[in-house]
């Protein structure tokens, strides 16, 4: 017989609240769509590879748990489901035998790259009756910022990719440095780490990227929504603090620069040490805060001379792509120093070692359960944004008669 009440293990009682529940948040059911999105949110464009890597030879990528074959033909990139419908081997093992098509490595089933239609089954001759009866699913693709992007939806038309990219990257000439890295950990941990108010000042205080830049101990922060972004607005920064009974704590040192006093009015710009002037394009955006996030997991950190973006691309429930993009808004010959700076320093210090600390934390994060604290308002607001936007999308698609197999919310 199974007892109704399990025997009490020593110590269990003290971990429970008076109402008998475990303290903290045990699951993410407050945000059912977010909780269900282990392998990512559908309905978005995702960057998956450098454009230069996609050639006439098929390449395989995994996105939102789906295997996709990418191939360039006639200048354009095409994406097909990477599973031959005949016997299930990866189409990406195949090769091109006729222009505009790809042929499976096993029996030579040949698919039109644009439509996905089976146009030949080589080993059954030109009159094969299977032709015209099979269509391989395809994905829409685009190329922006030197990368190939794929739209993963639920049967709806893909919105123009420019509606999803950060607005300032669409409407201004920019020069970009990009790093793509496959990382361990759920994509949500990566977004949450990126937008987390608390960790940067503490975890990254030891990074080489911040070696000469002061970090506050803590901030007074508000989250403000504008358009499709939510912003962290820092009302006050505390550079030192007394912890009663413990002592004074500060991350300062004589060689670390605080943001110049002159920039006190620029609460919406991050600290890069001694920079005084803010780039005109960046200033014109008039962002409410220096760190912002939007769906489906795009982080934007604004500095005086550049903007740093992180796109967190769900590969599957346990892996994601970290796509770090540094953009400067300049053109012509003035772009040359950018490449020197990016390749000589930023790529290694910021997109490398600094971001490597985030990579480490995302790998070892294990939540829920979780016990959140005041700065985690940033996480709560991100989850709320994801939930609201996804609920609205689900309602819209249902109106269009598309079945989402959606979470009941
Ligand atoms: S498995 Fe692809 S052609 Fe047979
Ligand atoms: Fe970080």
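Sequence proposed for the structure above (409 residues):
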């Amino acid at each position: 017989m199974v007892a109704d009440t399990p025997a009490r293990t020593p110590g269990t009682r003290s971990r429970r609240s008076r109402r008998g529940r475990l303290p903290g948040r045990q699951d993410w059911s407050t945000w059912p769509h977010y909780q269900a999105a282990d392998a990512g949110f559908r309905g978005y464009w995702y960057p998956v590879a450098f454009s230069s890597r996609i050639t006439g030879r098929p390449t395989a990528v995994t996105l939102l748990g789906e295997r996709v074959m990418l191939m360039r033909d006639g200048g354009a990139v095409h994406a097909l489901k990477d599973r031959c419908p005949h016997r299930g081997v990866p189409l990406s093992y195949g090769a091109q035998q006729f222009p505009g098509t790809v042929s499976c490595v096993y029996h030579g089933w040949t698919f039109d790259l644009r439509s996905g239609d089976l146009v030949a089954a080589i080993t059954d001759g030109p009159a094969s009756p299977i032709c015209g009866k099979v269509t391989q699913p395809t994905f829409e693709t685009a190329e922006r910022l030197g990368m190939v992007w794929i739209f993963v939806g639920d049967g709806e038309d893909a919105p123009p990719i420019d509606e999803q990219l950060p607005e300032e990257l669409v409407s201004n000439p920019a020069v970009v440095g990009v790093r793509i890295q496959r990382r361990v950990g759920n994509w949500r941990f990566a977004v949450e780490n990126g937008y987390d108010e608390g960790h940067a000042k503490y975890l990254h205080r030891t990074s080489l990227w911040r070696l000469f830049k002061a970090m506050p101990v803590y901030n007074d922060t508000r989250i403000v929504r504008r358009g499709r972004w939510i912003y962290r607005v820092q009302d006050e920064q505390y550079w030192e603090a007394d912890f009663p009974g413990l002592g004074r704590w500060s991350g300062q040192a004589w060689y670390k620069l605080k943001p110049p006093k002159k920039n006190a009015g620029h609460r919406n710009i991050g600290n890069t040490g001694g920079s005084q002037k803010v780039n005109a394009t960046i200033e014109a955006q008039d962002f409410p805060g220096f760190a912002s996030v939007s769906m489906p997991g795009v982080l934007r950190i604004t500095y005086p001379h550049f903007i740093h973006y992180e796109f967190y691309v769900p590969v599957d429930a346990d892996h994601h792509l970290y796509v770090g993009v540094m953009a400067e808004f300049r053109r012509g010959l003035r772009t040359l120093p950018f490449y020197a700076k990016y390749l000589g320093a930023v790529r290694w210090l910021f997109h490398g070692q600094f971001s490597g600390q985030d990579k480490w934390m995302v790998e070892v994060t294990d939540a829920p359960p979780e016990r959140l604290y005041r700065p985690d308002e940033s996480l709560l607001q991100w989850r709320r944004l994801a939930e609201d936007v996804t609920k609205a999308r689900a309602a819209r698609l249902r109106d269009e008669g598309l079945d989402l197999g959606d979470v009941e919310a």
